[in-house]
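Researcher: I'd like a candidate sequence for this fold, 209 residues long. If you have to choose between options at a position, lean toward the conservative one.
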């Protein structure tokens, strides 16, 4: 649809508020500027968080996962997130250097509620901090330090609607193209599917940390 020609396009906040109204009650009261003990508990149970950043090159959302509690609550207003091995694109880190504003959303398997954190991030390579996140003998290359500006839980409607934790809705990986097939087609044969697929899981397993 051509948005410029759409007579129903919303262009101002006043129109949005006329349609949606204003939040009230728990929707407002649950938001804090610090990590309440209940919110600390949710973070300690979460093995997966999505990190959102922005910078001159655009926006980025990056999945981060490890054993539950891998994001450390340093104090009531500070989180520590180790940057484990990845693809070395460092899109999130580039963005943080340019613009410290970040957003995180924590998921807990089997739990419908999620936890949202907005804040400002920096990156440290302090040896003492890195050492705290040693795993299987390996250190992260850096640790992201998040100063909390706002934190609140999100109700379970989205996960109920998506049935994300319902085993009956899980899709067989074999029903989708392999990653090698995808990258071969996208790269126009520069990368061969067989080579990529044969090396993928051994490489992932050997480079988790």
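Model: Candidate sequence:
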């Amino acid at each position: 649809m051509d948005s410029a020609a759409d007579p129903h396009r919303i262009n101002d906040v006043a129109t949005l508020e006329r349609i949606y109204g204003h939040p009230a009650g728990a929707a407002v009261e649950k938001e804090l500027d610090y990590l309440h003990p209940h919110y600390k508990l949710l973070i300690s149970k979460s093995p997966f968080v999505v990190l959102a950043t922005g910078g001159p090159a655009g926006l980025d959302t990056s999945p981060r996962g490890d054993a539950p509690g891998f994001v450390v609550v340093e104090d009531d207003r500070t989180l520590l997130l180790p940057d484990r091995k990845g693809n070395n694109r460092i899109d999130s880190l580039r963005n943080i250097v340019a613009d410290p504003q970040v957003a995180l959303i924590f998921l807990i398997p089997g739990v419908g509620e999620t936890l949202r954190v907005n804040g400002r991030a920096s990156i440290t390579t302090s040896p003492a901090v890195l050492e705290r996140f040693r795993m299987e003998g390996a250190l992260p290359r850096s640790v992201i330090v998040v100063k909390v500006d706002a934190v609140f839980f999100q109700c379970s409607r989205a996960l109920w609607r998506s049935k994300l934790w319902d085993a009956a809705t899980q899709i067989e990986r074999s029903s989708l193209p392999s990653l090698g097939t995808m990258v071969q087609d996208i790269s126009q044969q520069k990368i061969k599917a067989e080579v990529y697929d044969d090396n993928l899981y051994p490489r992932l397993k050997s480079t988790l940390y």
